[in-house]
Amino acid sequence: MSEVKKIATRESYGNALVELGRAHEDLVVLDADLAGATKTGVFKKVFPDRHVDCGIAESNMAGIAAGLATCGKVPFMSSFAMFAAGRAFEQVRNSIGYPHLNVKIGATHAGISVGEDGATHQCNEDLALMRTIPGMVVINPCDDVEAKAAVKAAYEYEGPVYLRFGRLAIPVINNEEDYKFEIGKGIVLREGADVTIAATGLCVNESLGAAEMLAKDGIAAEVINIHTIKPLDEELIIASANKTGKVVTVEEHSVIGGLGSAVCDCLSEHAPAKVMKIGVYDRFGESGPAAQLIKKYELDAESIYKKVKAFI
Amino acid sequence: MTKLELQKTAVEIRKGILTGVHSAKSGHPGGSLSAADIFTYLYFEEMNVDPANPKAENRDRFVLSKGHVAPGLYSTLANRGYFPVKDMETLRHVGSYLQGHPDMKHIPGVDMSSGSLGQGLSAAVGMALAGKMDQKDYRVYALCGDGEIQEGQIWEASMFAGHRKLDNLVVIVDNNGLQIDGNVDDVCSPYPIDKKFEAFNFHVINIDGHDFDQIAAAFKEARDTKGMPTAIIAKTVKGKGVSFMENKASWHGVAPNDEEFANAMEELQKAGEALCQK
């Protein structure tokens, strides 16, 4: 069996920017002294005049992005999720969100899979923060193919978009040839009638693994990839919940305010169903190799399988 | 415009500020009045703008970083012809486009939404950067408060502007010496303001912010300054033009009652008439 190709979505971000930059003169990339880590360095190499290093000053970077957008540029401001969504939250809210400016926020190093840097750099709160801003689109791609398509879709969309990327190299599960990305449209990856598993980001692949294990036990799980947390594909989630009656959400993010909360908001109003939220349970992360942390925080296929089995 | 015309215009702008704040029963008259002469000079003399075409691509841009003095900006825009002066009476009313703080989405002539202190200057820097990238010759002006510069983001933006040699950017500090809690140098001193901007590689000019000759000379000097942004530190009087409001921190964010409003308008009316005798 050939080795599964693994790519970190932050790499996809950098590569997509280069490709888009060739076609669009108005695309500008901003970074805050992390161009090597956010992978915008590859853009800088090709388009040095359109790469703006703001230094270690994320709040100012958000404001500069806003100012550039008022003059017709399409800025992608880049930093770690902790700083783009956390440090600069109020700047993103007031200088970008309130005037609904055409700024894209490329947030890398999200979640506990940051790994060794530990809790201070592991942002498990960004989805919650960003989805509360009126008019903000929030996207969390699950692999390289989806991440590149998401960056392109974000460029083509007029308005603020938050893009969440990871540091860890993860399996490429989508097929570049026939993959179609549409903002706000979830993707059913596996059909099933017994339980719905709605997952996002790197947890999509882990959930597929869990579904495989459940199938061996005779449980048919429907796996839905929710790449857009906001606007949420309510229609798809309601339809699946009505079919299975039981919903599990899986995310590498706090269970407070992220995908799980968004799904509960939707279902409690439109199609009450029993929901189990799998994610980071109201605690900070810690240092360690990413793969080990994913196991420890029970976001791996095996852990998801066990939890779903106990749930249904 | 002649100096006399500018002075007369500034009186009208001050009347609009009081009208708006009185009608809203809230808002920020003190800092609006201290910046009124600077607003007047910017919109009636300095900036290349056209009220008939507020989004013109090559227009000069203005960012009110001290966004709470929106009444000052709105009254200036209204008197300049962007929207009816009468609309000042709708300031802060439910359903009015004249929001408590500048809203670029709904107010003609507002180039950037602002209000959360410290953020406007960064946006102005972004606009100046875009001008450099596109080799356009528009200029960008940002008005900051002397209290506002306690925000760290102001210095992030200044460091960047100095580093990038944005000579199409002018920062004006409305140095009226007062903030909500009292004197700026008692609360948390920003002084020396000029030396701070110098240290961030700005060309710095100190002026009396109510003297149109000095204001004109400063903006000309800024225009002639190449290779670095300019900071104009304008010494002003909070509440300027309404005697009972002058130099009182308590008028930072309080509206005059009916009697105070009548007295203030009468004082401004007389000041305007006196200018007409000249």
Tell me what you see in this structure.
The complex is a heterodimer of chains A (312) and B (278). With 312 residues, chain A is α/β, with parallel strands linked by helices. Chain A folds into 2 domains: 166 residues, Thiamin diphosphate (ThDP)-binding fold, Pyr/PP domains (Rossmann fold, 3-Layer(aba) Sandwich), CATH 3.40.50; 125 residues, Rossmann fold (3-Layer(aba) Sandwich). Helices cover 41% and strands 21% of the residues of chain A. In chain A, helix 11 links the parallel strand 13 and strand 14. In chain A, helix 1 packs across helix 8, helix 4 packs parallel to helix 6 and helix 10 packs across helix 11. The two termini of chain A are 33 Å apart. The mean pLDDT of chain A is 97. The longest helix of chain B is centred in the N-terminal third of the chain and has 22 residues. In chain B, the strands form 2 sheets. A 5-stranded parallel β-sheet of chain B has the order 1-2-3-7-6, with helices on both faces. Helix content of chain B is 44%, strand content 12%. Chain B has a single domain, classed as Rossmann fold (3-Layer(aba) Sandwich), CATH 3.40.50. With 278 residues, chain B is an alpha/beta fold. In chain B, helix 1 packs across helix 3, helix 1 runs antiparallel to helix 10 and helix 5 runs parallel beside helix 6. The chains are: A alpha/beta (312), B alpha/beta (278). At the A-B interface, helix 4 and helix 6 of A face helix 5 and helix 6 of B. Chain B: This is Transketolase. Chain B: InterPro entries: THDP-binding, Transketolase_CS, Transketolase_N. Chain B: Belongs to the transketolase family. Chain B: Its cofactor is thiamine diphosphate.
Question: How would you briefly describe this protein structure?
Answer:
Chain A has 312 residues and is α/β, with parallel strands linked by helices. Chain A has helices at 9-23, 35-38, 41-46, 58-70, 81-87, 89-97, 126-131, 144-156, 203-216, 234-244, 259-270, 290-296, 301-311, and strands at residues 6-7, 27-31, 51-53, 74-80, 104-108, 137-139, 161-164, 170-171, 187-190, 195-199, 221-225, 228-230, 246-254, 274-280. Chain B has a single domain, classed as Thiamin diphosphate (ThDP)-binding fold, Pyr/PP domains (Rossmann fold, 3-Layer(aba) Sandwich).
